[in-house]
């Protein structure tokens, strides 16, 4: 391996270490505690080194958000693969979304949290739209209308998202009825929306 390749590999490793350290800090202390100084201390570098990779904390948040959307899309794709019935695919996709939220709690909070700039980030991040498009395509297949209008598909998507995001949010602040009951509520909600998707 040449010196250029080695330098590039080391730079990428440092970049990944910065992101991993950021996520570790957040898991231990919450998003409000994340700072460039804490990241530098965690990876045992000086703060100016962090700035060589990310202009500011927002740059780190943006990259972690991108990572979250890539992981979410992979989970949703995996859930729908192997199922041929669109309604079954849609149910599996929303359950995968639910599972992602609790397996990647901190990333989910960053991607969709009330205190985060998720709407602004989505405008500049194509990765944020990929999983949405998967849902749109399957919702369109479930609908009886051969060519449903885009705004109707969008409305159905946001009906699903509102219910599921609401359940996730309730559980993240420990106000739910327990995971088992809430998973049943989730399944009931998905089946109910699918049943009435053509109304």
UniProtKB/TrEMBL annotation:
Listed A to Z, the keywords are: DNA-binding, Transcription, Transcription regulation
- Provide an example Pfam family for this protein: TetR_N
- Gene Ontology molecular function terms on file: DNA binding
Q: Which part of the chain is the HTH tetR-type domain?
A: 12-72
What residues are annotated to bind DNA? Answer: 35-54
Q: Which residues form the signal peptide?
A: none
| Entry-linked SUPFAM superfamilies | Homeodomain-like (SSF46689), Tetracyclin repressor-like, C-terminal domain (SSF48498)
Q: Does the keyword Magnesium apply?
A: no
By what name is this protein known? TetR family transcriptional regulator
Species of the source:
Pedobacter metabolipauper
Q: What is the lineage of its organism?
A: Bacteria, Pseudomonadati, Bacteroidota, Sphingobacteriia, Sphingobacteriales
